[in-house]
């Protein structure tokens, strides 16, 4: 008696409601077909996409082709919807002299007409798959335009879907999201946030530890300020996109999200987060005024803290700014911060009197600068299109440069949106007053703060401290040392 292999495949995203029931029906139909032809059989069954070439059950079947005389399937598209892979399987079936049986009839691949029929049906299956995928993509976009969550059955941490496919907040999970964004605003690193979440016993929906990768993804996700975003891709490129704000209740405000994005963009070198235990008040704040790189603090043989000499390369030339004792620099900065107290007090008085002219002018100036940047990037977009049309650049170069330019445009627009929100919030100054009043109180007790807490406090209003001895590092101790440069860049 001849031996047959029954292959059953169904895709999870097919429109039928009960996959298990359909698989059972298909199995019964093919077993009946095997009995009609008096065949013994082995059954191979799986749930997978027809374009997937890595299917365990199919691969197992193909590895044992020399044992079989027939292959039983419901239709050719069950074997593969990928043209190239379908042709590869056809070659293997011909080599092993295996006939295909379907409920619609037999296909003997040794006959030229049947071979052509197989290839034609495989081509139709591939075309049908692309059409189904296109319709599903358009359907998801149409649903997303109505504010419904259609990107996947899995919802983001902090949300679940209601009966209308809209996201609703799950409070036990939402507290994790708020914590992550708040700690990022406090410039706590993702590694440290992950440790703190682990200590609190806060886990993912599946009970797994939240890693830095999870945290990085969460901090970039627009869904948390109420957005539903959906994209349709063709050959890896976005051809259609939906972006709907106020689609569901936000876990954080849009302003918080934009402020976090600004911090993340600034953090290209990792200097904006507290990553290690801080042992000095100015740790990770001092930068070389000559080359712009971070300056490090060490202890010399006598146990004295000193700022290391700078040896970074600039255009093949080494920066050799001389080292310096650390404590005088710390004292200078602390005194400057105390002097800044008067400015903070004036700002509080202005806020109390609702005189926000200076702040408004500062934001308007920032917006003007951003508008000019945006205009420049949009001009570059037009120029790239013209250059591509004239054949001055290749398609691949055009795509790479366009993607980089679009990313720049996106970042500038986000910063403009944040500035707009800040401008609108100028009249709502209670929170800013409280923050500044807290800073003023803390300034008087800075010496009593330990290094770590003082460092965190300073980072709330100091961006960088630019330092240079204005002298080249050498062994000549008799040479006159010029006055050092210490400039504070305030946030």
UniProtKB/TrEMBL annotation:
One MF term from GO for this chain?
DNA strand exchange activity
| Record carries keyword Disulfide bond | no
Q: Which residues form the Resolvase/invertase-type recombinase catalytic domain?
A: 3-147
List the keywords (alphabetical). Coiled coil
Origin superkingdom: Bacteria
Q: What is the lineage of its organism?
A: Bacteria, Bacillati, Bacillota, Bacilli, Bacillales
Provide the protein name: Resolvase
Which Pfam families does this UniProt record tie to the protein?
Answer: Recombinase (PF07508), Resolvase (PF00239)
The record places domain Recombinase at: 156-270
- Phosphoprotein as UniProt keyword: no
This chain's source organism reads Peribacillus asahii
Checking InterPro entries in the record gives: DNA_bind_recomb_sf, DNA_bind_recombinase_dom, Resolv_N, Resolvase-like_N_sf, SSR_resolvase
Q: Which residues form a coiled coil?
A: 334-429
